[in-house]
Amino acid sequence: MLRLRYLSWLVICTILLSVAAPVLPAHAAPSFATLAPIRQDEVADYIADIRSEDADIEDDFSRNSGLWDTPFEGTTSVYYRSSELRIAVEEENTLAWSMLDAEVHDFYVEVDSIHREGTLDNQFGFLFRFDEANNYYLFAVSSDGYYSLQLNNNGEWAPIIDWEESDAIEIGEGAVNTLGLLAEGDSFTLLINDFIIDEASDDTLSGTGLALNAGVFAEPPIELGFDNFRLWNLDEPVEEPVRQAPVRIPSRTVTATPEAESTPTALAPDEPTPVPTEEPTEEPTAEPTEEPTVEATPEPTEEPTVEPTAEPTAEVTEAITGTAPSDIITAIQAETPLYSADFSDETTDLIFFESDTVTYEVVDGQLEFAFNTANVLTWAELPEAPTHYYVEVDATLASATEAAEYGIIFNYEDNQNFYLFAINNLNRFSVWQLANNSWEEVQPWGDTTALQSGQDNTNRIGLLMRDESYLLVANGEVLAEIENDAPPSGSVALAAGTFDEVDLVMHFDNVSLWDLDESSIELGTPVATEEATEEATAEPTEEPTAEPTAEPTDEAANQDFSEVTQRIEEIVAGDPDISDDFRRDNGAWDTVPHEHGSYFYEGRAFNIEAYTEERIIWSVYYGDPDAELAVDFTDFYVEFDTSFVTLTGENAAGIVFRLYDTDNFYKFVVDEIGYFQLQKRVEGEYSDLVAWTLSDVADDSEGAVNRIGVLAEGSTIALSINGTVVAQVDDADVEFGTLALAVETYSTPEAHSIFDNFNLWRLNE
């Protein structure tokens, strides 16, 4: 639908003024111009060079850094929430912003924008060249797929680039868009999700103010989140790039409209034109795919990168237990691996993508990657994907190729999100993270004597994945131990990449993968030592509940859980009936907020926040987004991951099940320090089935992820934590009901937990 999209409002500084400005009229055009198409390739390379340097100003909005105004004007507000800067507008035809506390002249800036609530008929982006007379330029994007560049001069709006439709914009509720702006002199380049969508020039303003902004037209309210702000000052020339991020350029040029029109011009962009590949300066690192896909097995990638020259910074440390990492690895190697392959039968069950750029085959008992194209990174996934593991493989560069890399991909979620442990042909190693198709350096390239370079030399490389850290291994020597910045997840793959040479041949052999969750080896997970305390139990309705009176016991330690453990193993050997990895809101869970808490999808996980002390809040499973009633479950086994974001020492997270109504249900929760509890509520009264009990299998370290499980079959209820049954009871007071993920608070009002990787098996069908 074509609509009027002109800004008809004005805000001065941080004080909101309600201005009934007319719809933008036709006017004499200022000296606006659009850059010629031939400039686009040059600008793309220039932006890649800028990005290769450290940003001058960075803010992930995890706390109030003091860099941004946070005004509240009644109908507009700026505030921090869930590691984002939020701008909310509740009045129609209103623009609000948060000003950066820094003067910027020529710059390149990027920020992630997230639609959090409200109408899609909105706008958000950058306000720049703000001067003392309150004049500024506005680069605006909308959640329904439009963008524009406008000038507000002496209270009058003039379009430099009129509202245009672009396929580069992610649209809809919850959409995330990365906005970029290059402002140098009178030239402006606009980027959305790594597409250069437009370029224009204007010399009207020269102010030094910069702000993030959000606005709403005729249908308030709107709430926008901003994250991962980065700004580069361009007063000094940038050096050669370290790693070029993907920049894509649509092959069309949009000409600025000198006069106002009543509707936006909708132009469908052609296929994007890839950025020309730069010659690597030293040892490049292969780049991810040109075209993002959602397929499990991705296309080989097509962008080279240059290798950084920094020396390694990570130091090899001993495990928390005091056992040397090399001794842990030796002990693991003595056990039977979950998966192994020596390719002696000339076959393979690894998962890879057949393409014209690389062939995969087993040759003389080795898995061979043979490349015929420059600047390609590709991989083959192992068929098993445990959470904690040790993997190792023999890797041989079987061709006289100077510039090449190979190694292990881990935490592989999709072809736009994974980590790469990379080795090159110069006895160097590094670690990179690909996050939403953008490379970030984790471990800089560093030299090591443990590696062998040159044709036909074999390196046995390994990776040990634990919750708190992972180890990089080569030829029996630990190269580095790196702290985990996220819980282990995803799959593992063998990887290799070319650069400017096209004839790389890589051989992999003797791959082994050990599942450490099934191992008896101690990996250094700390054990909770805090004393048990009696905690109040919160209620889903209006009033707090009475304290449980039972003291913690060690009764579970004397129980035999072998039969129920075997039953759970039989269940999980089959495919689950319901799975949810929470990558997006599919409508399966209740997300209606209330005064006690809220529910939202973020970071490919489901989040629950509580705001009231002594309260339990939950999100019920509906399954179908159009369902009016939640799904009932009688007998089932369910398990999911959970972790704490807010740490107060007095929060718990878990599951409410057989939820017949708010007065009749069971509740299993685990708290921050490793205690768990099972309660039932019957006719409005709580009672303990398992009093608060300290578990030695629950991980109470900061940021730890615990996998929670519940078996409810007839009168049998069994509880598991991280794959170990910790309690079993017989109770049939509540026979069936719905199921909900839950967060519980005690004497503090704040709680925030994350839930992921939900699986449920029905047992009564």
User: Can you tell me the CATH class of the largest domain?
Assistant: Mainly Beta
**Proportion in β-strands:** 35-45%
Radius of gyration: 28 Å
Low-confidence stretches: 1-38, 237-322, 525-556
The proportion of residues forming helix, as a percent range, comes to under 10%
The H-level CATH homologous superfamily of the largest domain, spelled out, is Exo-inulinase, domain 1
Give the biggest sheet: 9 strands, antiparallel
The CATH topology of the largest domain is what?
Answer: Jelly Rolls
* Number of DSSP strand runs: 48
Give the helix/strand class: mainly beta
CATH architecture of the largest domain: Sandwich
- End-to-end gap: 47 Å
What is the domain total for the residues?
3
Shape: flat
Number of helices: 3
